[in-house]
Specification:
heterodimer; A: about 200 residues; 8 helices; about 90% helix; globular; B: about 280 residues; four-stranded antiparallel β-sheet; 10 helices
């Protein structure tokens, strides 16, 4: 799986620079919505990779190499998780810096909730991408955008209004995202294997 | 042991089907897979590597059933070059090397760099800026740099200029000097196969018409060139294919054993045999 993640990293490297810039800008802006948006945006990284791979027909070559279906599928999830976690970390560092410099309150719990919202988004949409591919999955992309915007708005509302409600939201989103992922990964593996054969 | 054994493989795609394909490639040999476009060569290779699941039959590579979980490990021993080199477009050769180093346990980075030098491939240039020939050379370099025992090559020499093609054929030929190394190669360039292969397998419309030793094949058949009257006098059962020339002459592929020994015959090329057989499929 390391090989596949490295390949995705190289593929996304140019895009990553813009991605880092987006995190930087959104984290710098005041308001919970902006920094949460940056984290949930990370959930879209695997779709860029799937699109690149479809264009280069990498899957045909990968099928000839010693990669298991498990590796091929899990690497996509891992990329989204790493992207989301990385965005959280960068955002947290920036928020901390801004809180010290401008006395603006940091919201680490909202970031945590955003990370698990990102995990949930991946769990819902990746099986559909594995089943139908990116080209046929344009409707799914709309769903992703809807989920990203919806979860971002909801989380920002929570972050900005009730500091007491936030831990409860985190406690809710964590088990939900874990259950979704536990169902999603085997389903993706099954659909990936069926689609590629 | 057979490097490759396909046993009554069937796979249907609706309008096209691989039908009852049985093919054996003994270890230490080179087998050329020949057939017209759409004959099923690439499908056969995908079935062989378990990238496609057959509707029926079984396949084994290096003695391991391709449907078994153990086949995953066997892929370490198989170098594959497909009809296009499907590496991600933004990767450079150096990055491809680093990804492959984490893919194959026996990846030899020094050997990979030697192939890059030998093929004059720039390490830093993105794959999308490579010519088709350069792309195929990179795919060949990757296939050869993880100590494979079997090479599976699907139109691997297509797009290469004659000098590089000759160089690559020499590399493939050297590869089989080790007695447990084998190659399955599909190509439309029949002269390459004639130069390289021990066995020729002919796939026509999804069906394997024959797989036999190249020398035996060229011994069995012969070319008769003469007038139309002379051709008419031949035993029809001996004539496999016939080609009327514009100037009135006739060229026939005949079974050497079924025509009089006194008849003047020419030794055919693999291309002659395949072209005649493809035009008028008539095997006995």
């Amino acid at each position: 799986m390391k090989a596949l993640l490295l390949k995705d990293f190289y593929v996304l490297w140019k895009q990553m620079r813009y991605f880092l810039l987006v995190i930087l800008v959104f984290s710098a802006l005041p308001g919970g919505y902006n920094m949460v948006f940056a984290v949930t945006y990370a959930a879209l990284l695997p779709y860029s990779c799937v699109a690149y791979d479809e264009r280069s027909k990498w899957d045909q070559l990968a099928a000839m190499m010693p990669y298991s279906v498990r590796d091929l599928v899990l690497s996509r999830y891992a990329l989204g998780w790493i992207g989301g976690a990385g965005a959280c970390l960068v955002s947290l560092v920036l928020q901390t810096a801004f809180s010290l410099a401008f006395h603006r309150a940091a919201a680490p719990a909202a970031l945590l909730a955003a990370f698990f919202a990102c995990v949930s988004t991946l769990a819902i949409t990746l099986p559909l991408i594995f089943r139908f591919g990116v080209e046929r999955g344009r409707l799914i992309m709309f769903l992703i955008i809807f989920l990203v915007c919806g979860s971002t708005g909801a989380l920002s509302g929570i972050a900005e209004s009730a500091s007491n409600a936030l831990p409860a939201a985190v406690w809710l989103v964590v088990p939900v995202s874990l259950v979704l992922t536990a169902v999603s990964v085997p389903l993706s593996m099954r659909w990936y294997a069926r689609r590629s054969r | 042991m057979n490097a490759i054994a396909l046993n009554h493989i069937c796979k249907s795609f609706g309008s096209f089907a691989i039908r009852d394909l049985t093919l054996e490639v003994p270890e230490g040999t080179i087998c050329g897979l020949v057939g017209e476009n759409g004959a099923g060569k690439s499908t056969t290779i995908r079935l062989l590597m378990n990238a496609l699941r057959p509707d029926g039959g079984s396949a084994a590579v290096l003695g391991v059933d391709t449907a078994s979980p153990e086949f995953q490990a066997v892929k370490e021993d198989v170098g594959v070059v497909l009809d296009e080199a499907y590496f991600p477009e933004v990767l450079s050769a150096a990055q491809v090397g680093r990804v492959m180093a984490k893919t194959y346990r026996r990846w030899d980075g020094d050997q990979f760099r030697q192939y890059l030098d030998r093929f004059e491939l720039p390490e830093k240039k993105p794959f999308k800026d490579y010519s088709r020939g350069m792309r195929m050379k990179l795919a060949i370099a990757v296939a050869l740099s993880h100590a494979p025992r079997l090479l599976v090559l699907d139109e691997a020499t297509a797009g290469l200029d004659p000098i590089v093609r000759d160089q690559v054929l020499d590399i493939f030929s050297d590869f089989t000097r080790q007695e447990d190394h084998s190659i399955l190669i599909s190509s439309h360039i029949l002269s390459d196969l004639e130069k390289l292969c021990d066995y020729i397998a002919f796939l026509h419309q999804g069906k394997l018409l024959f797989c036999e030793e190249k020398d035996a094949l060229l011994e069995r058949y012969a070319i008769f060139a003469g007038t139309a009257d002379q051709a008419e006098s031949l035993d029809p059962a001996a004539v496999v294919g016939r080609e009327d020339r514009s100037y009135g002459g006739v060229r026939c592929l005949v079974r050497r054993d079924d025509v009089p020994a006194t008849l003047m015959l020419e030794r055919p090329t693999v291309e002659d045999v395949i072209l005649f057989l493809a035009k008028g499929v008539k095997l006995g």
